[in-house]
Structures are given as C-alpha cells and as structure tokens.
Amino acid sequence: MRLFVLGATGSTGTQIVDLALARGHQVTAFVRSPRKIARRDKALTVIEGDPLRVEKLAPALRGHDAVLSALGPSGREAFRRSTLLAECAATTVAAMKTAGVGRLGSVSAALLFPEKALRFVVFRWLLQHHIRDLIAMEAVVRATNFDWTIARPPRLIKTSAETYRSERDALPAGAWEMSFRAVATFLLDCVEQGTHSREIVGLAGAAR
Ligand SMILES: NC(=O)c1ccc[n+]([C@@H]2O[C@H](COP(=O)([O-])OP(=O)(O)OC[C@H]3O[C@@H](n4cnc5c(N)ncnc54)[C@H](OP(=O)(O)O)[C@@H]3O)[C@@H](O)[C@H]2O)c1
C-alpha cells in the first residue's frame, strides 16, 4: 500500500513509519522538520510541509491509499489552549477530498472515554485544552464520509510490544498503558485488513 503519515517525527509516527516499511509498504512522511528523520529507505519519501496548508498537502497526497495521522502538540503545548489538531484534521480532510484518498486512521486518546477512575479524572483536568482539541479533531473526521478509524489509546510507553487489545466505543478492561508501537500495529492492521471502518476504537496493551 502507499501510506501517507502525518506526525511521522513523533513517538507514534516513528513507529508507524518503521512498521509500515517493515511490512513492505511505500511510505510518505509529510513533516515540518525533515532533518529529524535520519532513516533512509528506498520505500520512504520525506516531504517537508505544513499540515495546515491544504495547497501543499493535496498534491503530496495524490496516489496514496491511506493517511495515518499521529499529530500531537509538542511538549508544554498540550497544556495550552490549541486548535492545532482540529485545524490539521480540517486541512487533511480537504486535501484528501481533492486528492481522492478516502481512508484515514487518526490517533486520539482514551481520556475521551467517560472513565470515572481518579487517574482519568485528574489527567482529563490537566490536559483539558488538549482534550478539547482532540474532541474537535474527532468531530471533523467523523463528519466525513471517508472510511475512517479513530484510535483512542491510553498512556503510551516506549517498548517494542506490538500486541494490543481493541474494543469499539469503549476502553478495554484494565487499560492503563500500552506501547507506541502497538498503536502503530493497530492502525496498520486496520488499513491493511479494511477493519474498524467508521469506528472509534479503545485500545490497550496485552492483558497482564
Ligand atoms: N504520548 C502519549 O502518552 C499519548 C497517549 C494517548 C494518546 N496520545 C495521542 O497520540 C497523538 C500522538 O502522540 P505522540 O506522543 O506520538 O506525539 P509526539 O511524539 O509529541 O509527536 C507529535 C507529532 O506532531 C507534530 N507536530 C506537533 N506540532 C506540530 C505543528 N504545529 N505543525 C506540524 N506538526 C506538528 C510533531 O512534529 P515535530 O517533530 O516537527 O515537532 C510530531 O511529529 C497525540 O495526539 C496524543 O493525544 C498520546
């Protein structure tokens, strides 16, 4: 498949690129800082660009089978008011329409589920601005008639684990953390197998 990755320099995006190449896909990483991608691979194309600019995104997107988006606010930005993700979703959707690409996988967050455990309540409060942006981002994606999948993972950690549990519209039992790589595995499985179309999916690592 020809896959177009947004947020390819980030923790999740790096895993998406790595796993997609390992699975034999052609990958385009559309990034604002190409120097952050040290990897060289004949199946990897790095394009410099701003995901907020449709006129740059649309031509770059042409000919791809799917877009995988793992954009996120960098560092302290997550604690400030932002519309970055909602705006990027809007430009991505507009560019996909222009380019005739209809498959989209986006990373959101488990904090959007109405979990009542104290840790969810605390993190929802701490990350309230980011969560507002994620909700708006999801609304933009859900309003399309694309074949979309929204992944809502819990806290992410750097391990090589690729196993995940998934549940439509809910957080799998006992979900607290999982690996960035397992989120990448889930999104790639979805686009390869054509599963979870037009679904919000809660994710978790392997059961302990
Ligand atoms: N990390 C977690 O524990 C966790 C848990 C649950 C859900 N999530 C969700 O997963 C998503 C990805 O998280 P992550 O930890 O992989 O993110 P990350 O490592 O911070 O990567 C964020 C990506 O977005 C890009 N980006 C940020 N601001 C940008 C801007 N203004 N213009 C263009 N690109 C921009 C970054 O590019 P640069 O490299 O150029 O900055 C980077 O590629 C987030 O939306 C988050 O809500 C994360």
TrEMBL record:
<dbReference type="InterPro" id="IPR036291">
    <property type="entry name" value="NAD(P)-bd_dom_sf"/>
</dbReference>
<dbReference type="InterPro" id="IPR016040">
    <property type="entry name" value="NAD(P)-bd_dom"/>
</dbReference>
<feature type="domain" description="NAD(P)-binding">
    <location>
        <begin position="7"/>
        <end position="193"/>
    </location>
</feature>
<dbReference type="InterPro" id="IPR051606">
    <property type="entry name" value="Polyketide_Oxido-like"/>
</dbReference>
<protein>
    <submittedName>
        <fullName>NAD(P)H-binding protein</fullName>
    </submittedName>
</protein>
<dbReference type="Pfam" id="PF13460">
    <property type="entry name" value="NAD_binding_10"/>
</dbReference>
